Amino acid sequence: MNLFDNFKDPQLCKTLLARIHAELDGELRFMEVCGTHTVSIFRSGVRSLLSDKVVHLSGPGCPVCVTHDSEVAAFLELAGKNAIITTFGDLMRVPGPEKKTLKSAQAEGARVKVVYSPFDALKIAQDNPHDKVVFLGVGFETTAPAIAATVKVAREQGIGNFSVLCFHKLVPPALDALVGDPELQVQAFLLPGHVSAIIGVEPYRFLASKHGLPAVVAGFEPVDILQALYMFVTMRNEGKVEVVNAYTRVVSDEGNPKAVSIMNEVFSSCDALWRGIGLIPGSGLTIRDEYADYDAMRVFDMKLHDVPEIKGCRCGDVLKGKMSPEKCPLFGKACTPASPVGPCMVSTEGSCAAYYKYRI
Ligand code: SF4
User: Fold this and answer.
1) pLDDT tens across 5-20, in order?
2) Is the pTM of the predicted complex or chain greater than 0.90?
3) CB-ligand 1 contact for 341 (6 Å cutoff)
């Protein structure tokens, strides 16, 4: 038996489920804000075992899904310039204006390369000194430190033909914006393990102190998820409202100070656009002036432009937890993983893709 088997133990899961259902008074509406949790909750079967009184809402935890239409348009604009575009693979099929994607741009001749790390992108820049090489920086606090480290290495090694199109987003300001929405009616947050490994627990304290909402940092195995749900139930029954770290085998309360320090050295916070939510103050990262030479927006003199939203797609409502993917008129008909209309069906961590894979 390895360590992870304990976190999948069927008997432990049954016990936790029985306690949740026996001790829950009223309804528990919890939101997860991590694409990996979205998938884990379905894949493990946890969701199918929860009673109707435990309402699962998927929030804006899929980095590709929350990337705004105007940011996708910027990727495509960049692909039309004389540059090598490097990206993680999950952005390739995200539709932009006129249903164009990086994949279709690549088919039409744009130099778009999928990489597994921003350091692979830096290597491409080293190998192609006469080309400008851009890495598309999306994702939350989880990926931002590695990309900041890549920019630092580029500076240290004098690699001047590398830059980053930086559309990173920060989770805590998005949660603050979400809970301010009176229609949402979320009662508890299942907090993202990966992001928390970087930022720790402190940045979420406002959920309890300002909004009176309990929150638990949880791992991704079924016992982790059920344990977090049981903690919500016991906190409610005991009249407590706390932000708790239940993923201590990975997340320390302080997070990873070194990663945060690298991130803060290269990036500063800025207002950012989120798909379906709009502009959230202080919820994005931009490249500091000291590293302006590595900022693709400045290198290519680009600006974000208003672009029409994808017709018929309800990703915005899905990302805000206001609508279940199955309620989208296009779900499973015009929109499937093989032929996605919106980003929530493109990304494997998207809510629509998870619903499609595990519910159909
Ligand atoms: Fe958008 Fe497709 Fe999801 Fe509907 S099912 S919200 S069209 S991604």
Assistant:
1) 888 899 999 999 999 9
2) yes
3) yes
Ligand 1: nearest atom to the Cα of 335: 2
Parse the chain into domains and list their residue ranges: 22-313, 315-359
For domain 22-313, say whether CATH 3.40.50.11740 is its number: yes
Burial 128-165 (b: 16+ CB within 10 A, else e): eeeebbbbbbbbbbbbbbbbbbbbeebbeeebebbbbb
Name residues whose C-beta falls within 8 Å of residue 21's C-beta, 6 or more positions apart in sequence.
51, 53
Region for residue 226 given its phi and psi (left: phi exceeds 0; alpha: psi -120 to 50; beta: otherwise): alpha
321 alpha carbon to ligand 1 midpoint, in Å? 13
Distance (angstroms) between ligand 1 centre and the Cα of 140 equals 22
**Cβ of residue 325 lying under 6 Å from some atom of ligand 1:** yes
Q: Count Cβ neighbours within 10 Å for each residue of 58-81 and write b for 16 or more, e otherwise.
A: bbbbbbbbbbbbbbbbbbbbbbee
Other Cβ atoms closer than 10 A to 55: 16
- Tell me, in angstroms, the distance from the centre of ligand 1 to residue 350's CA: 10
Sign (positive or negative) of CA dihedral 186, 190, 196, 200: positive
Which tens digit of pLDDT belongs to each residue from 60-100? 999 999 999 999 999 999 999 989 999 999 999 999 988 89
